[in-house]
Amino acid sequence: MSVISEDSVFTSLKQQGPLAVEDSVNLCSPFSARTRTWVKCLCYNRINATKYRALRSQIFEFLGIESFSQIPELLNAPEMQAERSRRAFGLLGNMFGLHGTAREVEARVQQYARTADAVANSLKVKILKPYASYIATTNEIEVANDPVTLLLIMFNDRYHKKARFEARRKLVLMTLAGSIDQRERETQIEEKFSAFLHFLNDYVWSKSQKIGEHDIIYLKSTHNPEDYSCQTVTVIDSNAAAKVTIAPGTKLTLLKRRRFRIGNKDIPIYVSIRKKPPEAKVLKLLRKNEKNPAVAVDDELGLMAVLDSVADIKTFQYHMTRSASKADSFMVLEDITDTLSGPSPYQSSAIGSSTKTEMIKFFARLGGMRVEFIIHTNRSWLNYMYQKDVAHDEYEVKRLFDTGVMELLFPADIYHLDHHLIRNDMIRRFRARIEE
Questions:
Q1: DSSP string spanning 110-168?
Q2: CA-based, 20 to 30 A from 136: which of 127, 256, 276, 419?
Q3: Mean pLDDT of 9-25
Q4: Which domain of life is it from (predicted)?
Q5: 3-state secondary structure 28-41
Q6: Per-domain residue ranges of the chain
């Protein structure tokens, strides 16, 4: 489902609808022809009208006012704004279950504002790097971390339409960041992530390596010129890699591998362990058209592994089960998908994903945690990195544009962007970087 569709839960951010940010703000003409036309448009969809009434009540309660006509007075009263801000931080602290002094609660809410800024900044760094100047946040909005200040900017006609939209966007993203933080505290995700790392070091990885030690190897691979899928792959060491001449269609990819021991044999494995940062979780909520992180973010803890063969993968699964038992926990595998062992296409509800993706994916429930595992062979991992229509860089572009997230965060009428053109351009750029 597109986040900009009629069923979007982010109605207040949509620029195609009655709650769109307009060129100017006029709070003193409630019976003008323009306002009457707007009301007719709003009431055309009863759900939007209901959402608007709920949003209006929240704004009035947050600002401590009874009508929009009181906002101009508040805009011209700095002392009154400061008092409303102190009250607002307390209200938000209670809503998100924050404990501590007033300064501690204020600091945590301001951290939500920095997470909101990080959402846009993370896109500028990679997915929209060539277009960073187009989507740069207005200075006054980026430095504003007070929710009341941001809310009042939305109704201040001295601010440009773009700045007023960005103030609204920042408030919405702050709310999502607060929900994510509350969920993380309730589920103790930080403690679980630390416990998972200790479990791996104590029970899974070979004791022949020190914690954090890796074996450095290279994957020398050749790729199909048509779709850049991996045709052959060989594991070589650093000395052999130094003598390799890179030809067109050939890749040399470094891997830092750990080991796990089965009997008297150490089996090499490349592992990437992740805990999603808050801004990535915010983007996932947007892509899923969901405000509840308990529903949309099911992969807070994740491990991606690359092994030499499918046989090694099965050995690793067995080793993980035995390791969990040694740690006094049963391990259950849930939601298993396997496109490495057979011809069945990869089935995913995620927009932008390719049916040609090969991997084993499952969730492991152990030790009070639910960890997402994505496991590849060397060949399937190289396809995951480089193959046309499968490569993760392409997938990231497709899922952000095709779900409507880019249009929601950077609407075309404000940022003057052709999203379809940019989508295809960024895929072309990533393909060129991979193949050249």
A1: HHHHHHHHHHHHHHHHTTTGGGHHHHPPPHHHHT---HHHHHHHHT-TTS-HHHHHHHH
A2: 276
A3: 86
A4: Bacteria
A5: CCCCCHHHHHHHHH
A6: 11-187, 189-390
Percent of the chain with pLDDT over 90: 69
Quick check: helix, strand or coil at residue 334? strand
Name which residue leads in pLDDT, 14 or 30: 14
Long-range contacts of 427-436 (CB under 8 A, 24+ apart): 427/394, 427/397, 427/398, 429/130, 430/391, 430/393, 430/394, 430/397, 431/388, 431/391, 431/394, 433/393, 434/228, 434/385, 434/386, 434/391, 434/393, 435/228
What backbone torsions phi and psi does residue 411 show, to the nearest 5 degrees?
-60, 140
C-alpha to C-alpha distances, 371 to 188, 274, 364, 381, nearest whole angstrom? 14, 10, 5, 20
Q: Which string of DSSP letters, residue by residue, matches 373-387? A: EEEEEHHHHHHHHHS
Residue 184 CA, distance from chain mean position = 15
276 three-class SS: coil
Look up residue 176 and give its two tokens. 């999502």
Which pair of tokens denotes residue 118? 């990080």
Rounded to the nearest 5°, which phi and psi values hold at 333?
A: -95, 130
* pLDDT tens per residue across span 348-367: 556 767 778 899 999 988 88
**In terms of DSSP bridges, do strands 369-377 and 301-307 run parallel, antiparallel, or are they unpaired?**
parallel
Average pLDDT in the 224-236 region? 95
What is the rounded distance in angstroms from the CA atom of residue 403 to the CA atom of residue 1? 7
